[in-house]
Amino acid sequence: MFEKVRVTSGIPYLDELTQGGFIKGSTNLVIGPAGAGKTIFGLHFLSEGALKNENGLLIAMQEPPWAIRRDASNFSFFDHNHYVEPEKIVMLDFTPSGWELWDPDSLNIGEDSPFIIEAEGVPYDETSLPTFLHRVFYHISQVVEEKKIERIVIDPLAAFRFYDYGNDEGFLRKITTGFLANIASLNVTTIAISELPSNTGASIFGEEYIADSIIHLDMLSVRGEMMRILRITKMRGTKHTTKTLTFQITNDGIIFLEIDKDK
Ligand SMILES: Nc1ncnc2c1ncn2[C@@H]1O[C@H](COP(=O)(O)OP(=O)(O)OP(=O)(O)O)[C@@H](O)[C@H]1O
Ligand SMILES: [Mg+2]
Questions:
Q1: Residue nearest ligand 1's atom 23 by CA
Q2: pTM
Q3: Strands, E, within the chain: which ranges?
Q4: What lines the ligand 1 site, CB under 6 Å?
Q5: Is residue 153 one of the residues assigned to a domain?
C-alpha cells in the first residue's frame, strides 16, 4: 500500500474530516461564488505552510497582492511580518495591470523554452492566453525552485478569461488543464480557486475532472440570515465527510459552527 503524505489545510477541524488533509503533490479546487471565502481559505493554507516551514506561493490573478495583504492583516492566523516579509509566503502579481510590469526581456519565452504551451490558431502576442500562461508558468517554476515552494494558491483561474483565447472554449479548456498539469509536475500541493456561480453544475474550464479534490463554498439565505456552507464533493484516495458543514468567517478566519464527533 502506498503511504500518502498529507498536507494540512490550516482550517481548524477540516483536516480531521479528510484523513489529515490534502494529498501531497495534489491539485485541489476551491469553488464558490463571490464573497464565499475562497481567498480566505487560500490564506489559511499558506499561513499553515509558513508555520510549518513549507513555503507558499500566491499567484494573484485578480486582486493584487497589496489588497490581499491588506485584507489578510485582519486575520489572527495571518502574520504579515513573519510570513510575507521573510518570504515564507511569496505573492506574484499576475493581475491584468500587474503582469505588464514584468520585464518581457527577462523571460525565456523563445522556442527553446521548456514551457511552450501549444497555441495553434491563437496569435503569440502579449494579450493571448497562451503567452500569459507561458509567462506565469515560467515564473512559477523559477520561484518554486528558488524559494523551495511547497504550497501554491492560484486566485482565481477565472482570470484566464481576461486574455485572448480565440473564443475557442475547447482550446481554453485544453490549455487550462495543461497549465494545471504543468504545475502538478512541480511536486507542489496546489489550491486552484475557481469562481462558480451559485446553483450551477458546470465549471468554466473542466478543471474539476483533473483536480484531485473539490471543495465547494457557498452562501444560503436562511430566515433572512446568510448561512455559509462548505461541502467536499470529491477527494481522490480519501475517505472524507459527505456532510454539508456550516461555518462563519470571523477575525480567526473560517470557523465551523457545529462539530460532529461522528464526522
Ligand atoms: N474579519 C472578518 N469578519 C467577518 N467576515 C469577514 C471578515 N473578513 C472578511 N469577511 C467576509 O469574507 C468575505 C470575503 O471573503 P473572500 O475574500 O475569501 O471571498 P472570495 O470567495 O475570495 O470572494 P471573491 O470571489 O470576490 O474574491 C467578505 O465578503 C466578508 O463577508
Ligand atoms: Mg477572492
A1: 35
A2: 0.90
A3: 6-7, 22-23, 27-32, 55-60, 89-93, 149-155, 189-195, 213-222, 225-235, 245-250, 253-256
A4: 32, 34-40, 74, 195, 249-251
A5: yes
